[in-house]
């Protein structure tokens, strides 16, 4: 009599793809694992084996001390901004949000077929999400997809030299304090844009597979004094010239208010890495007007309206 083969399982859940390894069970299986742990995954070998990375358990691993938080009366809604032409969310070509492994806090390395790591000065990014439609309550359970260019100003999945990489992109789920944390590197300043970091906010982790579900899309403006310090380091030489040709007052995204609510608090240094902390007010009662791929055309240049990352085939606006 033949013995019936038992379907492999993990944490009591049968594999979605019994013939594949644990790391290849797909995004929905990863999400199930994430939710079973109440949105808290710890970095290390165990998380790496799942293709997932950690969000903190509330301890201060970033070296930032305490989370920057605005008082209820001072909090403003984060401005809606374009996701640019390189979102990687499926709205303009490549879609990382469908891939198993995208839920991770350390975004310095690619995952999947490549483990190449982006080089540069260390940077931890800590966002505190507030639900403005719910008396500024901490937005527990909201998911943040964050991405930015590398030290050379290139975007993974798009720029020719790193089209096969997916580093400097990842998703984290807000903890009970509304906090998400990412470990990354300091991005470059490329021609025509002020240095920046993109992010999209989703109501929950199940919503991340469709960019249309985003409830906020915005950008973090990098503080000039910190940029000046980092760009003096080896590897960032081109950023010095590019930064000299643009300002927060002339940048096509931040010029309306010089990035007033998008400039983070900063701590740290070049040797130990920097920490950015930023309160993010999200009003779900207003329409999410950002997102989507920016139109092609326009141009970079002397602080002009466009931006052209290295390796792009054409000039693009709102990148």
The main pleated sheet reads as: 5 strands, mixed
The global form is: globular
Which segments are poorly predicted (pLDDT under 50) over 5 or more consecutive residues?
Answer: 35-72, 293-306
CATH class: Mainly Beta
Q: What's the Cα radius of gyration?
A: 19 Å
CATH topology: Protocatechuate 3,4-Dioxygenase, subunit A
**How would you name the CATH homologous superfamily?**
Aromatic compound dioxygenase
The overall pLDDT, averaged over residues, is: 80
What pattern of helices and strands is seen along the backbone? EEHHEEEEEEEHHEEEE
Tally of individual helices? 4
Total number of distinct structural domains: 1
Strand residues, percent: 15-25%
Biased composition (Low complexity): 310-319
Region (Disordered): 79-98, 284-319
Biased composition (Gly residues): 288-306
Keywords: Dioxygenase, Oxidoreductase
């Amino acid at each position: 009599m033949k013995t019936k083969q038992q379907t492999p399982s993990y944490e009591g859940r049968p594999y979605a793809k019994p013939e594949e390894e644990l790391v290849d069970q797909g995004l929905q299986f990863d999400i199930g694992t994430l939710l079973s742990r109440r949105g808290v995954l710890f970095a290390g070998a165990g998380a790496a084996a799942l293709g997932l990375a950690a969000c903190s358990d509330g301890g201060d691993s970033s070296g930032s001390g305490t989370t920057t938080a605005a008082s209820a009366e001072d909090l403003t809604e984060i401005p809606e901004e374009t996701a640019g032409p390189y979102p990687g969310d499926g709205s303009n070509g490549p879609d990382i949000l469908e891939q198993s492994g995208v839920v991770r806090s350390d975004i310095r390395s690619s995952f999947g077929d490549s483990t190449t790591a982006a080089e540069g000065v260390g940077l931890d990014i800590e966002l505190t999400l507030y639900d403005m439609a719910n008396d500024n309550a901490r937005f527990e359970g909201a998911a943040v997809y964050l991405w930015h260019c590398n030290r050379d100003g290139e975007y993974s999945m798009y720029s020719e030299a790193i089209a096969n990489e997916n580093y400097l992109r990842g998703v984290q789920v807000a903890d009970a304090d509304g906090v998400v944390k990412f470990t990354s590197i300091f991005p470059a300043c490329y021609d025509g844009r002020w240095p920046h970091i993109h992010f999209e906010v989703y109501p929950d982790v199940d919503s991340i597979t469709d960019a249309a579900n985003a409830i906020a899309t915005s950008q973090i403006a990098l503080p000039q004094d910190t940029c000046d310090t980092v760009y003096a380091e080896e590897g960032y030489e081109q950023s010095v010239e590019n930064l000299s040709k643009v300002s927060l007052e002339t940048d096509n995204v931040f010029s309306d208010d010089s990035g007033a609510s998008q400039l983070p608090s900063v701590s740290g240094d070049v040797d130990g890495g920097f920490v950015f902390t930023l309160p993010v007010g999200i009003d779900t009662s207003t329409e999410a007007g950002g997102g989507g791929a920016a139109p092609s055309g326009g141009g970079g240049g002397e602080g002009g309206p466009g931006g052209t990352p290295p390796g792009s085939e054409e000039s693009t606006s709102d990148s």
